Amino acid sequence: MSAAQPIYTVGHSTRSIADFVALLQVGKVELVVDIRSISRSRANPQFNRDTLPATLASWQIDYEQILALGGLRKKSKTIPRELNGFWINPSFHNYADYALSDTFRTGLDLLLAHAADRRCAIMCAEAVWWRCHRRIVADYLLLKQQDVFHLMGLSRIQPAVMNAAARADAGGLVYPAVAAD
């Protein structure tokens, strides 16, 4: 697909730092791009933004946060609901609406610029990509002809596949409701 480095997606979940880094090493990740809106956790403080960069640096892995790609978006007041009607879950629907914004595009462009010369992994807290906004970010990367892989485990890497409901639109991707048969 792309001449750029592949981009990985990963959820830190409740992993130890050693397990997390081992997973990153499977993909030869050089830069973790934090796409959490809230980059701290009482339950998993090893992934807090104030300590994670230094911890990763000890393994020669860089860290950057791109807030423009963060999740937990509010309901849009300007995007018609049916445009992204495929998403029943409000969190995904809201994020799909947000992904049509200039702010999202700026964040995506920054991620792609990093991926031009370094192996990146976009990171969120959710362990599995299909329960996380990483799935929508992955769709946008695929639209840009970027290779994307989901780091699921040490011996489990899944190639990302565009959501079947996704449709290219002038502003990005839309996910119209799928007609029931």
Automatic annotation (TrEMBL):
Query: What protein name is recorded for this chain?
Result: DNA repair protein
The record's keywords, sorted A to Z, are: Plasmid
State the organism of origin.
Sphingomonas sp. NS2
What the entry lists under InterPro entries is as follows: DUF488, UCP024492
Top-level division of the source organism's lineage: Bacteria
